[in-house]
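Try this one yourself first.
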């Protein structure tokens, strides 16, 4: 998420309803995919996970792109 960009793996893209390929998205667009109540919690967790090297998080999807 450095530089305002989120890296989305092919597996996460599938879950989010995006094209099944690795891709990058502007951070604002990426965060818009998640439920508003989860966004701040997710960002804090992602920053911690990046430093610790572990990532396991449950989050609600706000909307899937059509």
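Now uncover the answer:
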């Amino acid at each position: 998420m450095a530089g305002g960009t989120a890296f989305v793996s092919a597996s996460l893209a599938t879950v989010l309803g995006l094209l099944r390929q690795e891709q990058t998205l502007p951070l604002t667009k990426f965060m818009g995919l998640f439920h508003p109540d989860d966004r701040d919690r997710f960002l804090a967790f992602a920053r911690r996970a990046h430093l610790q090297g572990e990532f396991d998080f449950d989050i609600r999807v706000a909307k899937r792109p059509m």
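Discussion: The helical segments are 10-16, 27-31, 39-52. The mean pLDDT is 79.
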